[in-house]
Here is the input.
Amino acid sequence: MQTVILAGGLGSRLSEETIIKPKPLIEIGQKPIIWHLMKIYSFYGLNDFIVCCGYKGNLLKEYFLNFVTTNSDINVDLENNKYIILNKKKKLKWKISLIDTGEKTQTGGRIRKIKKYINGTFCMTYGDGLSDININKLIKFHKKNKKKVTMTVVNPPSKYGKVNVNKNLITKFEEKPSISNNWVNGGFFVLEPSIFKYLKTDKTIWESNPLKTLSKEKEIAAFRHSNFWQSMDTLREKIFLNDLWNSNKAPWKCWRD
Here is the structure.
């Protein structure tokens, strides 16, 4: 099964870093967040990726073109214009198609532009969020429910602490509790090729008319994920993810080095 990664947005809320690189190349523990995402899918046997490039997409292409040398110790012979890989690490099975979907194209438009590369039911996610989601269970759930779309929904923690007040006294304080009964789009999808008919133009926003229409048609199944999920929209969230990784407490790390 193929996995599509939307990696073309501007990432304006992380402009401290996205001024020089696309958001999926922002590093968590010295590895781009897109690498972490691909490691998750690869752990579950999904190694065929389609990356929808846009803003600074050339840097994504350069990263994967130079992946082997960048991630290895090498000996360079400048006189003979040759190099040798010194530490032969276990090879990744990844097959990666990097498709230019346009800098100003919306999310639905990006998916629309890779239609000709899709060969059946496929996974789709955004290039800026991590989770300890079980991809096998997600796909099994999708097949069982037989809907055009399966959307992972998550119950993220509040940005603020919760307080209970009784007669001007705070009776209970809870630091950043989960939002009760407030499920949101967690960004891990399984999609049928029939969704392409809902994507009309480059300006189509996947999260707008397509999903609204599909929900009215009762064609979206909700896969509830109650464990770890974290988007990387701000510098604070990037620091949080780095802290988890650097302290060996990253919940999304399902693979062995």
Observations:
- The radius of gyration is 20 Å.
